[in-house]
């Protein structure tokens, strides 16, 4: 299937996911998943460094930036957790931030154009689930580095579009052939997964061809030291094996991924899939989600600006 260029709006030329309230609610739920998975607003292993870097000081207020802040949930929660800091949430699209305290402010902007107004300003820069959506992820990481003061901390996190089974084998995605009979394809699906197929489609749709694993992007920027990379598994609809807080993660992921299908249906229809296929796919996808024992994988890197 060919993926057409969906958007003529320059600011949105790469970002293909929805930006409506339903998607903001889904991102808020996914934020909850991140917090359960990593142990809070930032990974437990980075907590001491973050508290040191953001310690109150008589000289100036610490600055936290959340680049590609989406619903703004991470930034507003950080603003509440660090009331003596100034928190900037930056995104292409402004949303409503009813929970935001006074030390949070939103800045509208396109990261791809650079952020010279924030040069060496921030003590902590957070950028989660954004890098694969921009045309030039390396340039993004270089720009994030430029926003940090020397000694400041980068928190760079991302997901992936692959799915593992309970034995950690990659699950084969189901791929629709729009020229063939729909029912026959379903009958012949075999071991191919409708869930993995949906993620694979969105990987094709949204992932920049220049994307590389986040630790490679950090290394290549040559702006950081003490790079610390962790990966996390989130079980879907089951607790997983030896996964901390697995049951809660499994439940959140079931709802998150259901909402991801219903919320992103229009995006998929623009990629050439008929509503007939999408309606059938959604039923098969939800059925699989409810009975599966699968995992998704997420990556979190912290790094200190030299
Ligand atoms: C998948 S969402 C992640 C949102 C948030 N970081 C989170 O983890 O909940 C990606 C966000 O990046 C923003 N984004 C994508 N490209 C951007 C760009 N060039 N400049 C600014 N923001 C961008 C989108 O508008 C969207 O809000």
From TrEMBL:
Gene3D superfamilies: Vaccinia Virus protein VP39 (3.40.50.150). Signal peptide: none annotated. It comes from the Eukaryota. One of its GO terms (biological process) is methylation. InterPro entries: SAM-dependent_MTases_sf. The keyword Nucleus does not apply. The keyword Methyltransferase applies. GO terms for molecular function: methyltransferase activity. Keywords: Methyltransferase, Transferase. Pfam families: Methyltransf_23. PANTHER family: 2-METHOXY-6-POLYPRENYL-1,4-BENZOQUINOL METHYLASE, MITOCHONDRIAL (PTHR43591:SF24), METHYLTRANSFERASE (PTHR43591). This is S-adenosyl-L-methionine-dependent methyltransferase.
